[in-house]
Amino acid sequence: MPSSPDTGLLLGKVDYRESDWVVTLFTRQHGRVSALARGARRSQKRFGGVLEPMHTLTLALEERPTGDLMILREASIEVARIHLVSRLDTLEAAGRALGWVRASAPQQQPEPLVYASILELLDQLDQPAQQRDPRLFLAEFGLYFLSAIGIGIDLHSCVRCGRACAEGRAAYVDPKKGGLVCRACGGASRKLEGPERERFAQASSGTSGVLESPDIEGALLLVEQALAAHLGIARG
Ligand SMILES: [Zn+2]
C-alpha cells in the first residue's frame, strides 16, 4: 500500500531486532499507531535524528494488509519546539500529557479533538519566557482531555440521581464515579468549593486560562484518578 502523508507526535520507541525501532506515534489521521522504523538504530542519518518527542513530525506511514504494525518510511520535523525542550518544568508537563494520551488513546482510531488539544498544549508550553506555571496548562488540558475521550467529569449534576448543583455551590466529587455525588446519594471524600467547581467545569469544556495556582494539585489528581478508573475498567 502506498505511503500516506500524516503528521504526529512520538510517544515512545523501543529497540527492535538489530537495527530497528518500533515507534509509538499519535497521529492526526490514524490516531495512536505503532510503526516499524527500519534502520533507525543503525544509522541516525536514516531518520535524520528527528524521532524525538515534543516536536510535530511529518510522517510517511505505510499501512500493511495484515497486523497492526505500520511501516514508517520517512519522518521530518514540521514544528520544532525548542523552548519547551530546553526547560525541565515544561518538559515534565508535556511528558505527563503525552503519557495520558499514550495510555488512553485507542489504537488506529483518529481522535481529532485530542490531537488538536495536545498540539495546543505543546505550543503553549513552547512559548518563550512563559511566566504561567506549566502545570496550569497541563491541568486545563487534562480536564478537557477527559471530555474529549468521552469520560469528562460531570461538575454540574449528581451522577447518581441527576440533580443539578446550584450555581456557585460547593459539591462533593468522585472522579472514579465520573462526577458530582450529592449528599443525599452519599457524597464523596473530595469537596470542591463553588468557584473552584466553576473553574474546573470551564476547563473541562475547553476554556484555557481559567485555573489558578491553588487548583493545580486538585485538578491533576482528579484527572489521574478518572483516567486510572477508566483504564482499570478498559483493561479489566
Ligand atoms: Zn444525587
Number of H- or I-type helical stretches: 5
Structural class: alpha+beta
Query: What's the number of extended β-strand segments?
Result: 9
CATH topology assignment of the largest domain: de novo design (two linked rop proteins)
The largest sheet has its strands arranged as 1-2-3-5-4
CATH class of the largest domain equals: Mainly Alpha
Poorly predicted residue ranges: none
Q: Summarize the amount of helix as a percent range.
A: 25-40%
Tell me, rounded to a whole number, the average pLDDT. 93
CATH superfamily of the largest domain: Recombination protein O, C-terminal domain
Shape: elongated
Query: Which small compounds were modeled alongside the protein?
Result: zinc ion
Strand content: 25-35%
Please give the domain count.
2
Alpha carbon gap, first and last residue:
35 Å
Order of helices and strands: EEEEEHHHEEEEHH
Gyration radius over CA: 20 Å
Describe this structure in words.
With 236 residues, the protein is of the alpha+beta class. It folds into two domains: 4-79, Nucleic acid-binding proteins (OB fold (Dihydrolipoamide Acetyltransferase, E2P)), CATH 2.40.50.140; 84-235, de novo design (two linked rop proteins) (Up-down Bundle), CATH 1.20.1440. It is 33% helix and 25% strand. The protein has five helices and nine strands. The protein has helices at 88-104, 112-125, 134-148, 194-204, 216-235, and strands at residues 4-16, 20-27, 31-37, 56-62, 70-79, 154-158, 171-174, 179-180, 190-192. The strands form two sheets. The chain has a five-stranded mixed beta barrel. A hairpin with a 3-residue loop joins strand 1 (4-16) and strand 2. The longest helix has 20 residues, at 216-235. The radius of gyration is 20 Å and the shape is elongated. The two termini are 35 Å apart. The chain binds zinc ion.
